[in-house]
Amino acid sequence: MITARDSIKKANFFNLEENWGKIDLVHYRLVEVLDIYRKFLGSRVHISPLDGAVYSDDTSQHTSKSWHYVIPGRNKFSRAIDVFPDCELYEAFIMAKRFQFTGINF
Fold first, then answer.
1. What is the DSSP string of the chain?
2. Which of 10, 28, 54, 102 is least enclosed by beta carbons within 10 angstroms?
3. Is residue 20 part of a domain?
C-alpha cells in the first residue's frame, strides 16, 4: 500500500521536514495532488505551521465533519490541508478550483 510518506519522498516540492503532523494518517493522494498543484501554480506553497494543519484529532479546530479528521466509517486518512501560497490569493484560489479542491477558506 502506498503511504503519504512514500508520496512525500517522491514529491518535487515537499519533504518530510514540513508540518505533516501525524503523517501516517494523511492520505497519499493529498500529497500527490498538492505537489502537482504547486507545480502548476508556479509559486511556493507552505504548509501551515499550526497544529492540525493536515491531520487533527482536536475537534474544536475545524467543523465537525472536516476532512482533517479521521472519522470511522467515512475515511481512514486526513484529506485536508491548510496552506499559504507565495502568490496572489486569487491566483491560488482559481488554481485550487481547477484542481477541484473544496472547502477553500481564506
1. ---HHHHHHH-SS--TTS--SSGGGB-HHHHHHHHHHHHHHTS-EEEP-STTSS----TTSS-TT-TTS-BTTTBSSB----EEESS-HHHHHHHHHHTT--S---
2. 102
3. yes
pTM: 0.87
Q: Return per-residue pLDDT of the chain as tens, 106 residues.
A: 899 999 999 999 999 999 998 888 899 999 999 999 999 999 999 999 988 888 777 777 777 777 777 877 777 888 888 999 999 999 999 999 998 787 777 6
- Report yes or no on 59 lying in a domain: yes
